[in-house]
Amino acid sequence: MRGFDKWEAYFPFYERVISRIRPGSTYLEIGVQNLGWLEAFDTERKFSRCVACDINPKVAEYAKCTRFTDVIIGDSTSDGVYQQIASLNEPFDMIVDDASHTQHDIIKNFLLYFPLLRDGGAFLIEDCHTDFSDQFSKNNYFGMSVYEFFASLVALPTLVAVNPALRRRNAAFELMHRFCGERYGEATVSSIKEIAFANSCILIIKGDGGLGKRVLKGDDWPVVPLHELGSFDLTALKDSATPLGPDIAVVYLNRVTDAQEEKGRNAFIESYRRYR
After folding, report:
1. Could you give the angle at which helices 171-180 and 103-113 cross, rounded to 10 degrees?
2. Strands across the sheet with 92-97, in order?
3. How far is Cα 255 from Cα 6, in angstroms, rounded to an integer?
4. Helices marked H in 8-145 — which ranges?
5. Which of 57, 92, 256, 258 is 20 to 30 Å apart from 159, CA to CA?
6. What end-to-end distance do the CA atoms of the chain give, in Å?
7. 86: helix, coil or strand?
8. pTM of the predicted protein model
9. In angstroms, rounded to a whole number, what is the distance separating the alpha carbons of residues 144 and 147?
């Protein structure tokens, strides 16, 4: 059996997800190391198409005789690797991020690959304790830690249900708006059913994040009368947000007069394309 390296605190999340997985499902693991976890995790072989993504070329060499049907070598946060995975045209039932564990890559992988989940699918992020390490926080273009982002993300479905204008005060929405566009942020928020936290592990379930109908049942209401309960709703925050205003556009005019300035200009464009 191939080796794998996991903390026990993650196992309940995996057990919960696999109990809901149907045979013939699809799986994406970003950062597979020795490729051993899938075999140990999916003992009933419910996943039929299994995609491995890793930056180490040795993964492709040793992927034979494993459960992985597709192997993609490269940086998962790069546009090229994302296009390869997206072009598989497989709505994934589960995505596991066990890759670099840096703040930037964890957030970027979520922004890129969460839309590739099918409704009801699970996105699981491991080893989030690195969020508190200087080594893993370097070069984080987003300017926000992993727990700051996902803690803010938890509040978004409620804010949108109460008053969409309130989302502008939310740090996670502002990040998605700035780097991915407002449509992406709205689509993501509306498709988050649940976010759960364990020690160093985060689980995001995709689906309808709405509250659904309010359920009031029973014939006996001795403490608080039913008519008083009926007057309570979620409008308390309706007037606490400023109206949505226009976005701010920044225009950068660059005039190149020599080779050195051209080199600097090209470096700026390359950075802008990498970090939208």
Report:
1. 70
2. 70-73, 47-54, 25-30, 92-97, 117-125, 201-206, 192-198
3. 52
4. 11-20, 37-41, 58-61, 79-86, 103-113, 134-137
5. 92
6. 42
7. helix
8. 0.83
9. 8
